[in-house]
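Researcher: Sequence of C-type lectin domain-containing protein follows. Predict its structure.
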Amino acid sequence: MILWPYICKITKGKADKRHGRTKSPPSTPAPGDGKCSLGWWSYGRYCYYAYNGKVGYSWPEARHICQEVNGGELASIHSRAEVEFIRNINYTKYHNVWIGLTRDRSYGWGWTDLTSLGFTNWAPGEPNEAFHDGDVGKENCVEMYHDGTWNDNNCVQKRGFVCRHRQCTFTSFTLRHA
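Model: Prediction complete. Tokens:
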């Protein structure tokens, strides 16, 4: 009997290679158990990637990059602690960052990963734009400011972004010889 430990393999896509980090983030301990790829940060049961380079991306472009790289999604945020964690990994501060909150077809707000919207952190006076059906140029997408508060903004604005996906889990199997 042979027992082999395995971890799921996460393959980096082309978009991740062109968005490499150049600096180290501040040393802020984060919860998590380290089951994330290089360049991703562990927090709770998820891995996070903050793109914070000088070149920004529209919300649809950012979402596409998150989905292309490790099958993630723009980050959904469910607590004040998660806001602070994301603020710490967005350390270069070139841009505000897109998160996965967007207008849904029922004129409300919803996370792209379909998790529930129980926590919000709107900046004072936000959200302040009406729903514009089918027009990604209006304020139907949400960015997070450097202070952690949220703003509805024009989806074609160029921003950084934060991706999130579930951590891999360690598994093992037994190979039995006949």
